[in-house]
Write a structure and sequence with these properties.
The chain is 25% helix and 49% strand. By secondary structure, the chain is α+β, with helices and mostly antiparallel strands. The chain has a single domain, classed as Nuclear Transport Factor 2, Chain: A, CATH 3.10.450.50. A 6-stranded mixed beta sheet has the order 2-1-6-5-4-3, with helices on one face. The chain is globular and about 50 Å long.
């Protein structure tokens, strides 16, 4: 597989893991990386598989089926590869539908990612998450977004 496909698959895997409620998997995806949540000039950095897993467990509501009842759509990927380093920017939109809550977009924003290639594989180095639009996230997150 090409580098572009391998990196794109990492970007898409993040969305699949959240929608499955697989927070262990998200931790493993960032085993060698970190996630940065940016809110204007403020930011929070989380690194390490266990810390990232725990962050998602503490902030994301899951239902009886173990999922958050969401569908993350990742679009507009712009990818730049330079040797063993790559960067990507993309948009995300999170849709949710659960009993008593009709299908709707609940949050949208962008990702700024960097990747490294080592030991014959690409991995996330940094994922910066920016929130642009916020709808009704009360059935999705256990925290508020300001």
């Amino acid at each position: 597989m090409s580098d572009q496909i391998n990196i794109s698959n990492l970007i898409y895997e993040y969305a699949r893991l959240i929608d499955l409620g697989d927070f262990d998997g998200i931790g493993e995806l960032f085993e060698r990386g970190k996630i940065v949540f940016r809110d204007g000039e403020d930011f929070t950095e989380i690194s390490g598989s266990i810390n990232i897993k725990e962050l998602y467990e503490k902030t994301t509501r899951r239902y009886d089926d173990g999922t958050p009842g969401t569908h993350h759509a990742t679009t507009n990927i712009a990818l730049h590869i330079d040797g063993n380093y790559a960067s990507a920017s993309s948009y995300y939109t999170v849709f949710q539908q659960i009993d008593g809550f009709p299908l709707q977009a609940i949050v949208a924003g962008s990702y700024e990612d960097t990747f490294l290639f080592e030991n014959d594989e690409w991995f996330f180095q940094i994922r910066e998450i920016k929130v642009s639009l916020v709808g009704d996230i009360s059935n999705h997150l256990l925290i508020s977004l300001s």
